[in-house]
Each structure stands twice: as C-alpha cells, then as structure tokens.
C-alpha cells in the first residue's frame, strides 16, 4: 500500500514537471529578474556611426533582442511610480531612454520601436528645440506633441546647461555648467554661491515651464547632463517638483530611491552579443 502511494506521488510529480516544462516552452518566457528595472541609454541614430551615434540597424537589433528574449518595455511614468510610489512592474522590465533631443529619434528610433509595440523617453535640451539652431537637427515641439499622443514622453535635460564652461580666469579648468560655480569674465571672478544657485534655478525653472506649456507634463523627471549633480541641484529641482533623477551610472534599479542608473547601449561597440551580455550581467 505504501509502495503504491509512493509510486502515485512520483507519477504526479512527474506529470506536474512535464506540464510546467511544456507551459514554459509554449510561452517562451523566462524570468531574469523581478521587482527591478533596467534603463537603457541612447543618444543619436545615423547611418554613420561614431562616439554616441549608432546606426538604425544596430538599434533595430537591440530592440529585436529585447522582444525575442522576453523583456518588457515599460513607460518612464510607470517606472516613476515603481521607484517612488511602490507601483508594480512586470518581470524583466526595461525603460528605453534617449538624451539630447535629436530628431533622429522620430526618424529612426520610433518606427523601430513601433514594430515591437514599444515606446521610449527622450530627455531634451529646451533651447535646442526652441531655437532649432544646432548643427544636428533637433525635435520640434510639434513633433513631440504628436509622439506623446502615441505614448512617447519627453523630459528635462536642462534648458541650456548641457555645456562645459570656464571655472577660472585663464580657462585652464572647466566643468559642467549645472554643477559648478563658473568664472564670469564681465565680473572678473567666479560666481558666488547665491549667483550660482540663481543661475541654475532660472534655467531649470524655464525648462519645467516649457515642458508644461508645450506638452502638459505632469511628472517631474530630469536626466543630468554628463550625469553630474550635487546637493544644490537636487534641492532646486525638488522645489520645482522634479522627483526622479537620471544619471549615467551603470546598474539595475530597485524601488525606494530617486536616483536612476542607466546602461549605455548607444555605442557602435555594442554588438548583438555584447548587448545580450550587458543585460545578462544584471540577471538574478
């Protein structure tokens, strides 16, 4: 009797194992990580690759791999709620981000993401979209409005602080404009702490105003130029109700912090195999 019960239990376990294995094969989905989010960083897309510029074909390969391997692309708004408000995200969650506001996002990235029912987020430089006076074509506000209706989103990369500037009289020392007190030639000295804070406050305030005026943005999110920030920058941004701070530090994101890590996938060196390895590094 005991032997029959034992055999019956073994048969049930075997059946359950077979069913589970068949189910896994039928869905083709694996859980690489849970309650975490990978954020990918890109910049520019062009047929001629260099620096932070990759080809449409390379970006297409990355998106195809995300789709085929069972990653779930979510919006940055869902990610915001996950990070700050205990919101839920699916397993293998990924956010796709671009920096600098290049129009190549509309021309190349969006059609590729559309193919896989994905959307992305672009951190734009406000002045570049207001004046459109840059060598590389930038997104217009009208283009962004249309893309927002399709599920894409646009947030701050500052209004006009995405530059290095002189920190001393002879220009031998330079640094990011957002995080440093600059040398002012007209005054013959470095900014005071109060002047520095007013300068960045004016810029960041203007950027949030433009995003609200043009796109009716409800969330406050910024990607720091060059990934640089300090306590004063965060203090000013929090007063403007900007709550999520995106860096260029590599890592996977867990809830309960306002600092966001990103993986730089937007380089010509990021082959298909290296892209897979980059993601796999953060699997459980």
**Terminus-to-terminus distance:** 44 Å
Shape: globular
SS content category: alpha/beta
What value does the average pLDDT take? 92
| Relative strand content | 15-25%
How would a crystallographer describe the biggest sheet?
A: 6 strands, parallel
**Number of domains in the coordinates?**
1
CATH homology group: Glycoside hydrolase/deacetylase
Oligomer: single chain
The helix fraction, in percent, is 40-55%
What's the helix-strand series?
Answer: HEEEHEHEHEHHEEEEEHEHEEEH
Tally of DSSP β-strands: 15
CATH fold title: TIM Barrel
The top-level CATH class is Alpha Beta
Question: Which helices and strands, and how do they pair?
Answer:
Layout: H1 2-27, E1 37-42, E2 44-45, E3 53-54, H2 56-68, E4 72-73, H3 76-85, E5 93-99, H4 104-115, E6 121-124, H5 126-131, H6 141-149, E7 153-156, E8 164-166, E9 174-176, E10 183-184, E11 189-190, H7 193-215, E12 221-223, H8 231-239, E13 244-246, E14 259-260, E15 263-264, H9 272-280
Parallel strand pairs: 1-5, 1-15, 2-3, 4-5, 5-6, 6-7, 12-13, 13-14
Antiparallel strand pairs: 8-9, 10-11
Helix pairs in contact: 2-4, 7-8
